[in-house]
Amino acid sequence: MSRRKRPRIPVTLVLPAEPPTRDEIDAILMATDAVVMGAGRSGVTLILKGSRSRKVLAQEWDKLPDYGRLQHLTTDEIARKVDWCLHHDWLRIEYDHEIPLLVHSPQGWERVKTLWVARVLDWFAEWAAARQPESVWPPLEPIHRQIKFRVLETIAREQRVELVPVLRAWFPHEVRAVREAINQTLQALGQAGLPHPKRNQA
Question: What confidence tens digit (pLDDT) does each residue in 29-42 have?
């Protein structure tokens, strides 16, 4: 006899009296981005609160960039703002083994890409100013490829010539598609492209 299927954990949204600010929405989206399909509403709430719970420490969520970003709010306030983002389709829920986990909605993912581009460009500016372009790797390794392409498009459009050393340091670590985009960006900045290494041909 097969085991009875466990019922889905129900989700009941509880909304705040006032909508979250743009900064609070951004914080919720970025915290969720770090744990997509790896945490639910309560997990993201713990991250943003800066909780030192056993679960947070075991998952190493305390090392995430947006850990504690809304620590000035109560846990209940954060949870209601997360629910607001769900209600207004900035986030969505998908089930894994009947457990509700957070994922991006299309509009949420578009906003996350914009936020990541700004964050990566800040990194690039810091590394270029410190003359440490080699710092680009491995921090860029886990970044979604769509974000990388948008970063390069922004650098070309804004003519960020000061970031050329970082682009050159980034180039050899990447797969072919991203290397080609880096070369296109270098050329848009009036720089010579770089030869492709004989690896990372994906």
Answer: 999 999 999 999 99
- Which residue matches tokens 């943003």? 48
- Give the span between the Cα atoms of 172 and 57, in whole angstroms: 35
Q: How many residues does the structure list for the chain?
A: 202
Cβ-Cβ contacts under 8 Å for 184 (sequence gap 6 or more): 152, 156, 193
Say whether 114 sits in a helix, a strand or coil. Answer: helix
Angle at 106 between CA 102 and CA 111, to 5 degrees: 90
CA–chain centroid gap for 56, Å, is 18
- Coil, strand or helix at 178: helix
Q: 174 is written with which tokens?
A: 């990447």
pTM as predicted: 0.90
- What whole-number distance in Å separates Cα of residue 110 and Cα of residue 150? 11
